[in-house]
Amino acid sequence: MLRYLVYRVVYAIPILLGVALVCFALVHISPGDPLISVLPADASVELQQRLLVIYGFDRSYPEQFILWLGRALSGDLGTSIASGRPVATEVFRAVGNTLLLAAVATVIGFFLGCLFGFVAGYFSNSWVDKAASTLAVLGVSVPHYWLGMVLVIIFSAQLGWLPATGAGPGGSGQWKWDWVHFQFLILPAVTMSVIPMGIVARTVRALVADILAQDFVTGLRAKGLGDLGVFFHVVKNAAPTALAVMGLQLGYLLGGSILIETVFSWPGTGMLLNTAIFQRDLPLLQGTILVLALFFVFLNLLVDVVQTALDPRIQRS
Amino acid sequence: MKTTRTFAAALVAGTALTFAALPSDAAAEKVLTVGMTAADIPRTLGQPDQGFEGNRFTGIPIYDSLTQWDLSVADGPSVLIPGVATSWAVDPDDTTKWIFELRDGVTFHDGSPFNAEAVVWNVEKVLDEEAPHFDASQVGVTASRMPTLRSARVIDEMTVELTTSEPDAFLPLNLTNLFMASPSHWQAKYDETGDAESAWTAFAADPSGSGPFRVTSFTPRERLELEANPDYWDEKRIPQIDRVVLIPMPEANARTAALLSGQVDWIEAPSPDAIPQIESRGFVIHANAQPHVWPWQLSFLEDSPWQDIRVRHAANLCINRGELQAFLGGLMAIPVGTVGPDHPWWGDPEFQISYDPDTARELMEEAGYSAENPVRVKVQTSASGSGQMQPIPMNEYVQQSLRDCYFDVELDVLEWNTLFTNWRRGADDPTADGAHAINVSFAAMDPFFAMVRFTSTSTFPPVSNNWGYFGNDEFDALIADARTSFDDAERDAALARLHKRIVEEAPFVWIAHDVGPRAMSPRVENVVQPRSWFIDIATMTLAD
Prior knowledge:
heterodimer; A: 317 residues; mainly alpha; MetI-like fold; 2 domains; B: 544 residues; alpha+beta; six-stranded mixed β-sheet; 32% helix
């Protein structure tokens, strides 16, 4: 197990370097002026040149990349051009907010996905299966930003039951686990959960139907095991795959949904990326993408390890 | 059954308690919550970013400037008035030097006095790279708005001299963009942090200006809280509202939902589609013609059909702006030039912009065009963007209108930042891709941005935004005259002569002026929406 862990960690290093390179390249080849957020279009050419030098954009791309990577390795992701604040502070604050949202969305998505999946798998080809599968397909198919807007219109604008936007009455910095704050999470978390819910439900349904058709289940029943006992065996067999799928979904959710976070003005990584893109804030964009990529790689690693621990049949070298 | 009833009762009770716990407005404190269009809080360290929305929310409320716009009038143009300078005059012996007399008794929020040294310090923060408090991040948004300012010098405690690179009568107008931050507060931050960059970061989190509001709490990207400054020097602008909360909400539907659900009291730029619903729920839409021009800026390159003044006039006469206004739900003003007839810079041009398709067709026929032989023009625009209003439907409307006058318009839609960057590169740059006009809206607050940069031969690309290379000796002389007319009335008269000739020569097709719509709760009272990009929060009140 330790050997496997070391192998996976070492394997992650070139991936991270590749991610850093691709992220730097993509950000720099995109059109637009990197100083647009601090330099109006009507600024003089002299002023433009002066700021290019001050911000280091007059250097060659390889030079800029090496300088950025060197600083990033020491934990300094630079300073946001637009806000003047350290990128690391900006990114980690946003990651915390997205983590909160993603965790709640994951719980909702995983719980409902498993529920619908098990029900559909157990009652395969019945009307229950069709109803549960329809919900799952809807979850995957409905554009979540549209769903978010609809939920806001119904529950905020029309009924006034839940707040439409934000991360608490005093902002995310004053977050508390009470109803006054938690209600700000409900609409974005529910909106964010529908895709993982649909994916998990479809996966679990297929798994359960497949497991139930296997000989060992017949054997268990023949040995007189009750429905509950069989159910636990089915759960144990379905869990590794369901966890792997959910782990990947959590990775996507941690990336933050640009659309959902923008619709709900949720100050997470999605909204940060959105702002960085529109402001052409290259240090912020690079820093955010790098941190998210790190998270994704780490999560994949974690899921692989948990999966291996849960299912001894999975042998990797 | 009993269990079911108990559960139901518990559910009802729980729900009732839940909704009783929903946030409600504090009874005593008057708090105004604003949903801005910005995706982040505009910078708070003195020189805001995010265009004029920044000046509106983190400039004018927190800081003072030497000169300021009069935001107390809704039915006339917003004109220049004294700020923390009480008077100013150019040195008659050297017209590159201006003397500003400063206002007594002004203090910054940290209690330190405002004086000539503070003005010099605030000029140095963006212009003197050797100054310990020089901040590159503030240079772009400041220096570009006062391109001729070079330095400042203390004459005495309350008198300061500003020097320009050339005689420039526009300087007092430009100085509305230079906000006075507290030097002593910055120094305290510097003493705590030990370096200038960290000091500015700390200053931005806990700023000190001398404006009618002071910052009490700042959560980056989420909210900025201001409280009234009861010691503000201008008694008319001592705020009656206790606190103002500014929240970035870049998504128009989110802003509308936040307003309708009572989460905020005021939203900027509601979507035109949402306005009937907003009004039906009792909210108030405030709008007024802004110095915000939404035109086609024309190319004067050799192959451009706009070289012919008859074609330029025809296009200006062929757009039914009233219909376009109705199409936008009334949220535009009909332009008759860059400024309107009641503006000091109007100048009464001989060419009158109106809807007159018959005359337009006559002009086009004189120029050799017809329905069978239309003139082909290509226009670059964007799908969205700051200040661009509704660029696609508006341009498509203009495209259809001009078809009646023998124009065959091709729209070339670009991403906003790309279009904005192209604007500086000119009509002859490959990025223009053969376009004969560009649709970039602009602010017309001061003469340089409203007129000079589009009509001077010294502002051809890449120096500034004269994208279409319009200009000649006559216009250069008119501009020089305006720049060297140091008496306010004379300067305005010179600018009126410039504006008159601009309208007559028509280097633009003037299509719309934005009206800066904002929606507010009826609780917000004493709202004056001036003909400006700005609005004064200090004079507003909140009903109980």
